[in-house]
Amino acid sequence: MDAQLTTLQQDFERYKASVSGSVAGLEPETVLVIEIAGSVNEFRQAVEAIGLEWMGEWDIDDIPPDEDFFERNTKGERTNKAVKGRMFLSLGNEAGMRELLSLWEKWRDNETLPSGKTKWRDVFNQTVQIRRWGIEEALRETGMLDRWQDLLNPINPAQAIRFQIELFYRRSEDRRRQSERNVATLLQAAGGKTLGGFIDMPEIAFHAVKAELPAERIQQLLNELESESHDTDIQLFKFHGVMYFRPTGQSLAVTEDGEGVDTEIAEGVVDLPPIAAILDGVPNVQHQALKGRLLLDDPDNLSAQYQPGDRKHGTAMASLVVHGEMADGQADPLPRLVYVLPIMQPDPHSMNRSEHVPDEVFFEDRIARAVRRMFEGEGAAPAQAPTICVINVSIGDPSRPFIHTPSPWARLLDWLSWKYRVLFCVSAGNYPEAIDIALSGTDYLALTDPKKVEHVLKCIQAQLSGRRILSPAEAINAITVGATHADNGGNYYQGQRTDLLPGASLFSPAARLGHGFRRSVKPEILFPGGRQLYRTPVLDSQTVYQPDGGLAAPGQQVAWDSNQAGALSKTVHTRGTSNATALATRSAARIYEVLDALRGDHEDSIPQGLISVLIKALLVHGAKQDDDACEAIAAALKTRDNSRQFKEVMSRYLGYGAVQIERVLACTEQRGTVLGCGEIRENEIHEYRLPLPPGLSSSQEWRRMVVTLAWFSAVNPNHRNFREAKLEMSPANNWGTLPLKLARQDGDHNQVLRGTVQHEVLEGTDQIAAFQDGDSILLHIACKKDATARLDDAIPYGLAVTLEVAEGIQIPIYEQLRTRLQPQVAVSAVGGTA
């Protein structure tokens, strides 16, 4: 620590000397990074007590063990596991630095620390590293250095390179304005400029600007770093207000070129108000499959940027939301309009004009405007789609895989979801890279299909760090959707293509994988994303398989925008998590129709403000991890070291499982689903009574109970936990002592509590004890604060409980549940509704 603090002090003195007089109003400050092992609660007050400004914190779980910090097992033996810890960020000036050093010297010399500052004793005790926030974090962790290195090779030194500057969010508005002036001045001094105004979103603590610098200045920085220089002459890269430099103008939706085939699709016109919305590129509203079925709202006239054949991604997503998978043109369209507001446009500089958000535009701004326009209106325009319950976001930022903390885009979706009580369905993202199977073609073909799957799963596991979900898939209030390796396309011509996961009910080999924020279950659910094949290497000795992006089967048949004039009936086959997400949004719209019918039958028992959160619960409620998929993953990846946490490993690949939506939309004689919803406040408990069907008394039949709780939480971007409300559903006793003798099947009991969906699948086969008609299972929903000192608002939630026995068993579960629920007007002890 002595050496680290000496280095810290020297770094600060050099920085202070280098900025002295360089920019008017530029105070020499620095952002401190304090990495500790374990945790120190309520550290913020200690930071502010010595004049430092709190900038945030997050959990870390990969500190290498050393002589000072290590884990012990249950026997007290030292292990080689990484140590979990926490990282704090704070900004201080010269006075704050002096105070920090003074406290360190007192602690080191065993002197008593001053009143109000004793928390620093715990910090010094547990500090692994203390340093200045610098180029390593601002540039290297975001991938900017590698990206710039790739860009610079063929570029003229005078050419401008564009990027995004993300600033530390200062609490004081005056400080934020001063940071803006400083950044603009430093850019100008380096020969660059801003590309537009700064974006400042206090609700999500996001402050940033788009900018450009001459390539020669970027090259100068890279040269200095390569020579291991401890400093750079470019003041912008040393400015304490900059948190990250990031890429900008990334392509958000990539589709293949091709014309497709003509497919006859029955046209139709609907006029019911929309429930589902799509934020994507512009669709071809004149396509035979979409004409009369979309409500296009294009306030920025982005349609004018498109040429014939450009409307690919938006058309395909709209097709899947409206019709689902089309098999030979057969479709089952939604009975309502689908609202579409474009947020992307073609990139004229890309080879295939892929759709993106331009360099000078923040997609956070476009999305915030779009959602506000739906529910509140914009300018003189009134609310354009206030009936929307679910919004499809089948796009992601390939330059921003999830690391540590939610991105601004994810934080925005969470805040919008809470503010407007709307559900976002977000794609987990695709992994477009090759898979190296490290086997020759002959050796691979010699394997049985199960052995091929086992081998490829191990190869995919080796890619996990590169397969992290893409922003904004980590959003906690959203439902993130992964893809299964499946479609309804039937047989296909294989050609020079290989199915790397043959005969397995698994995730798509081109899908990105979890976990989410704080190792929560992400993606929560999987929908079919089309069978993804890989191009067979030409030489037997070649082992690298590239994904096939062709538009022929297999895959999901979707409407396609043709560059041929008047060609309005083209379809192609596509694949990916974008497709899976569109199918999830379509399922959410179908769930709405069921809920709407129930409201009609039960006198509006479901308030409009709780419809979206109940859809969220039901969308996950149909999820179940496939038994064959679990067996395949366990055979390939389960080891002695991970066996105790293997449920958490499994969720990384399967989430809560693939959704069987028909199980959600209707009951059977042997399966009944009960719904509840409400608003709950901090420290309240809502109690629900599920009547036990008397037909199960003393039975030994297989039975399953599925319980799903979902909620929308307010968010606190300044707290490491981010989620303000933690809800938990549990039986009055524990699951194992329930009269039905059930045991948890899927999901780790801790992991299911880390997000905003708790999904429990429980089964039993042991003989049930006798019980009386009228006996019930009591379920409690408890609400606790998380990333806040106090919950000021009621938290909306939805609850779904399904009880079933095997089909054909003569126990009328549905009828016995329905009969015993009818007399109960309210089943909440504290305020819920059922």
Automatic annotation (TrEMBL):
MF terms (GO), sorted A to Z: serine-type endopeptidase activity
One Pfam family, short name: Peptidase_S8
SUPFAM superfamilies: Subtilisin-like (SSF52743)
Database matches in Gene3D superfamilies: Peptidase S8/S53 domain
GO biological process per UniProt: proteolysis
Location of the Peptidase S8/S53 domain: 300-635
Superkingdom field: Bacteria
The name this protein goes by in its record: Peptidase S8/S53 domain-containing protein
